[in-house]
Write a structure and sequence with these properties.
Blueprint (H helix, E strand, L loop, with lengths): L1 H17 L16 H4 L2 H4 L9 H19 L8 H13 L2
GO molecular function: calcium ion binding
Organism: Caenimonas aquaedulcis
Protein name: EF-hand domain-containing protein
């Protein structure tokens, strides 16, 4: 059942990114992590209840956004076309 929920969450993330949806950005002191690690249950399930909530998932996607915009030297709340394409490559590398 947990695998089914995680698979569904990943499918939602892929759909949102395919639509070009930007995630709400908030302050974070995140280091750089590979996307596959970010999408692990260990990283997403912050309250360790064995389930991924929408908030936990969106918080992790926000962290991925912020890590990459910082790495690319862009504005924290926006990406250029080239930066967004680089961000999508980051996401694809983790799949």
């Amino acid at each position: 059942m947990k695998l089914k929920q995680l698979t569904g969450a990943i499918a939602i993330a892929t759909s949102l990114l395919a639509c070009g949806t930007a995630f709400a950005a908030g302050p974070t002191n995140a280091e750089y992590y590979p996307f596959a690690e970010i999408m692990s249950m260990k990283m997403i399930d912050k309250n360790k209840d064995g389930m991924v909530s929408k908030k936990e998932f969106m918080d992790m996607m926000t962290m991925a956004w912020e890590m990459n915009t910082k790495k690319m030297g862009g504005k924290p709340d926006m990406m250029t076309d080239a930066q967004f394409k680089e961000f999508l490559m980051y996401l694809k590398a983790g799949s």
